[in-house]
Design goal:
The protein is 40% helix and 8% strand. The protein has a domain at 22-57 and 64-77. The longest helix is centred in the middle third of the chain and has 31 residues, at 24-54. The protein has a two-stranded antiparallel sheet. It is mostly helical.
């Protein structure tokens, strides 16, 4: 199944169906899957933005130091 090896590098399309033949359960399931994909995409965008702004860098001791800043609620708002 393609979902098992999805790397996030490309768009993941929902299977195309003629909507007039969907049962109510299928319709709700497709809408739920679309909602999940959209929510995950927005979370990923927020995380990428915050990670860029905090500027993580490896320090000589093997830890991580942050050279930038982001407000505490940056991901949520």
């Amino acid at each position: 199944m393609q979902d098992d090896i999805y790397s996030g590098e490309h768009c993941l399309a929902l299977p195309k169906l003629n909507l007039q033949f969907l049962t109510l359960h299928d319709y709700l399931l497709r809408n739920y899957n679309l909602f999940r994909l959209e929510a995950n995409y927005e979370i990923r965008e927020d995380l990428e933005d915050v990670i860029k702004r905090v500027g993580p860098r490896a320090n000589p001791e093997g830890g991580v130091e942050y050279t930038g800043a982001a407000r505490p609620g940056a991901i949520c708002g």
